[in-house]
Specification:
462 residues, Growth Hormone, Chain: A, 1% strand, 72% helix, single chain, mainly alpha, 20 helices, two-stranded antiparallel ribbon
Length: 462
């Protein structure tokens, strides 16, 4: 029993989901998977077009700078827009959509979130410096007259929108399928969704950055039509009919202590995932330079992201199926944390090996495979909480983890400053130390996890 949970007895209301057909359940899995596909496509799109778009937007500021100085300026703006602003939007959106998911339903979140992030990404394709005397001069009045300010606002809005997709989709699917098949269904959602990053890479190779944003937003809006056939979770409907107090109350994740420990444990185990993506992969070109790798053998961030997500997709399938085969979420997570630790050692040894580009991308792919326990993580997040808090927990937890990319990035830059900005090896040394901290926190989180394989989700928090 999950600590303070209450099984459906005289104090709870049994969920009566009604005659859910196999077709409707499969449709929910398909829609959640495609929704997450578009979510990941749009979530990582900025990282893939970071240099191209910022070179255009920041053109005057880059003029006269040498290559190294340009790379650092683009890096700093990338960390600000992506690791800070977009991920802050994710954590704010995680709270908003999580509460709505437990109060208004899982489907309302699926519709609302995709509209917001799709519109934000479409508008991203049109950012430009506005004529102060032109018809859009009102943008200057509100501080958004320049392209870079519009970029900042839209990355926050996109982050808020992107926050709702995964948690609501995983919660809905987890509540619709049987406990024995739950891990397989959520693995399908995560593995298909991760492929959005691979698709995003190829789109950015064919189209300019503005067109890529338009395609990403358009895919999301096109997906809305498919969602009208999806049914609401019967478990949520039963709790909603019972007018149970405290549904979606965020403070309930923080009290009592047992529930807070449960929530923190779930979050901590996934910190390495977004440290790897947000620091080691997105800024692999900067880290490679600091390790002394010659320019022709340094990875391109967009391609590095693509290879990382190829590994991540395979890792999601492997970890999800392993958790089913072993009948243990905890064992699967521990195994993949071990693979991640080994991969990080190899990654930070690239300079010593004077690695060529092929080996660098191979190790980045291995890193992706190691952090490919994302599917098991989001499933575990849903399984650790009752129906009246499940959407809140399952939506906020992944977005707190995504937001941790801002924390990892900040720690990375802070340690780099301590080592000394004039030290050319500081970026990789600081990134390695940050990784050690992150992996230690993940290990602590693992010890606080409960085994949730095959448990019933038909219960509420006391």
């Amino acid at each position: 029993m999950m600590g303070d949970r209450t099984e459906h007895d005289s104090n709870t209301v049994s969920a009566q989901p009604g005659p859910l057909t196999r077709v409707s359940t499969m449709l929910a899995v398909v829609v959640a998977a495609l929704g997450y596909f578009v979510d990941i496509f749009d979530l990582l799109l900025f990282a893939m077009v970071r240099k191209e778009s910022l070179r255009e937007v920041l053109g005057p500021r880059l003029a006269g700078l040498d290559t190294a100085a340009q790379d650092l300026l683009l890096r700093d703006w990338g960390v600000w827009l992506d690791n800070t602003l977009q991920t802050t939007g994710l954590v704010v959106g995680g709270v908003i959509w999580g509460v709505l998911g437990d109060r208004r339903g899982r489907l309302s979140v699926l519709f609302g979130s995709i509209v917001l992030y799709s519109v934000a990404n479409v508008l991203n394709g049109f950012i430009t410096d506005i004529d102060p005397s032109g018809p859009l001069r009102i943008l200057h009045w509100i501080g958004c007259g320049s392209a870079i300010r519009q970029y900042e606002v839209l990355r926050v809005l996109a982050g808020i929108g992107l926050a709702g997709e995964l948690g609501a989709g995983i919660t809905l699917v987890a509540e619709l399928v049987t406990p024995e098949r739950r891990g397989v269904a959520t693995t399908i959602v995560a593995a298909v969704g991760i492929c959005g990053a691979i698709a995003g890479y190829f789109v950015t190779q064919v189209f300019a950055w503005r067109t890529s944003f338009l395609i990403g937003g358009g895919l999301g809006l096109a997906l809305l039509a498919l969602r009208f056939g999806v049914v609401e979770s019967g478990m949520f409907s039963a709790v909603q009919r019972a007018h149970r107090p405290g549904r979606g109350a965020v403070w309930r994740l923080l009290w009592p202590r047992e529930r807070l420990v449960r929530y923190l444990s779930v979050v901590l185990i996934a910190l390495p995932i977004w440290y790897v993506v947000g620091v080691c992969v997105k800024y692999s070109d900067v880290i490679a330079r600091s390790m002394g790798i010659i320019e022709s053998e340094r990875p391109v961030p967009g391609r590095a992201i693509m290879w990382c997500y190829v590994g991540l997709a395979l890792g999601d399938l492997a970890s999800g199926l392993a958790s089913q085969w072993w009948r243990s979420r905890r064992l699967a997570i521990a195994t993949f944390l071990g693979i991640t630790a080994f991969s990080l050692l190899a990654y930070f040894s690239l300079g010593l090996m004077q690695a060529n580009l092929g080996l660098t991308y191979a190790i980045i792919g291995l890193l992706g495979f190691g952090i490919g326990y994302w599917a098991v993580f989001v499933t575990t997040a849903a399984e650790h909480f009752g129906t009246d808090l499940r959407a809140t927990a399952a939506t906020t937890a992944p977005n707190v983890v995504r937001w941790s990319a801002a924390g990892s990035g900040a720690v990375w830059l802070m340690i780099e400053g301590w080592i000394g900005l004039d030290d050319p090896t500081a970026p990789w040394q600081a990134a390695a130390i940050t990784g050690l901290v992150v992996m230690t926190l993940a290990a602590l989180g693992w010890f606080g996890l409960r085994e949730t394989y095959g448990t019933s989700l038909d219960w509420t928090e006391r």
